[in-house]
Amino acid sequence: MARAKEETLAAAAGGVLDKNTRAALHGSRFLAVAPEVGRLLYLLARSRRPALAVEFGASMGISAIHVAAALRDNGQGRLITTEMNAAKVPRAARHLEQAGLSEWVELRQGDAFETLRGVERIELLLLDGWKPLYLPLLKQLEPALASGCLVIADDTVSLAAELADYLAYVRDSRNGYLSCAIPLDDGLELSIR
Question: What is the DSSP string of 53-78?
Fold first, then answer.
């Protein structure tokens, strides 16, 4: 229903919605990874055993639950997750609390370019926020990426046009990444630096 509303508004606006209108439309939507993507996130976090995982785009906290569960089961690590939409943060916090995973997660509200400033030694990075920001945020965080950092980008097939620059960047080995498309749900790109 939200997708239909967005398409109707886009048609009325000449086919293009500005980022503020799109953000407002998605503000209350329950945006969550598919169950199979959640399982993959859990498996990747279990096998990588990150001391620090970072997520861009917490939404309602579902992907954070998968990563935090892996941290708990590893007996180590913490997750810093960010969410721009202030209305979503309490819901994400409540979901993490209900899952018994709050102690593994630091939920930061605000612009990720600010809330993630100063973070160091990221061993797992999940990008699932505003798609045009994937590449600029990745570039800002690159000095903080630990050797062998896993970078997971969501929605790479369903929103491929919005992520074209990001995908070209991580798929170009001159930028220091080895990257692979994962055909689950809306598409993932798994990269290692």
Answer: EEEE--TTSHHHHHHHHHHHHHT--E
Q: In whole angstroms, give the CA distance from residue 25 to residue 190.
A: 28
**104 and 178 in a common domain:** yes
- pTM of the prediction? 0.85
Cβ count within 10 A of residue 61:
28
Q: What is the 3-state secondary structure (H, E, C) of 128-181?
A: CCCHHHHHHHHHHHHHHEEEEEEEEEECCCCCCCCCHHHHHHHHCHHHCCEEEE
Together in a domain, 10 and 66 = no
Give percent of the chain with pLDDT exceeding 70.
83
Are both 104 and 61 inside the same structural domain? yes
Eight-class DSSP state of 104: G
* Distances 186 to 33, 49, 53, 89 between C-alpha atoms, Å: 9, 25, 22, 24
